[in-house]
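Repro:
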Amino acid sequence: MNTLTPLDRLRPIGLDELNAQAELQTRVDRKYIVPGRDLPAVLRALPPGSQVLEIDGESSLRYASQYFDTPALDSYFGAARKRRRRFKVRARTYVDSGGSFLEMKTKGARSATVKERVPVTGDELDDDAVAYATDLLVDAGIPDAAHLAETLQPTLVTRYRRATVLLPAAEGDASRATIDTELTWIDAGGTVLQLPASVIVETKSGQRAGALDRALWRQGHRPARISKYGTGMAALHPDLPSNPWHRVLTRHFAHATVDHGHHPSPDTRPLAA
């Protein structure tokens, strides 16, 4: 059975309605990495009234993210060393539905994530994008913000398919969740890493856990410390410090497939074809 087959029983919801009901741009994220074979049982336990995002008849949509960092990897080291003020910059492409956005994530109070974004074209940061990044870094209190923004360069690409679920407010707050399959990372040298047997589930809610969190807990799964950028970089570059993701790297990435062949430059443009 396909990992996502239980989602076929859910009523579809369009993007505008989904955003209207649960935009949750300021939220608490809980992440899980789950063996694909375990996911169907979790999805079958979703409460009545759960809905799945559908665009043009498709509920498993292709995504690509181009991450940017400085030559000194300030973004990566901020996460690896758990700095209080840290940031992440990526250009996310919605391959099937169209559109690319530059997203800046900064760490806020009490583990809340604040995300801002602006439309972009291509994977290079133009003057407007650099100015936008500078303003957000300044607002977040990141030291030397202007220099960091000016030196951002493409570092890592992630590719995956994503299903998005809207969960009702029963037993807690209304929440949304994403389920990422076909997980792929490509570094600046063209090395490709894949996790074909694993799925990343991310729940997005207020301070209270949502229905999918509780379904995962009942099946024995607990939140994991995983960052697509940080964990991917650590897996592809074992010389980098990786303490925050050591458990996930040991438990899940030990069985990754890695291709060191020569591949095209890891930007998002070919993914939109």
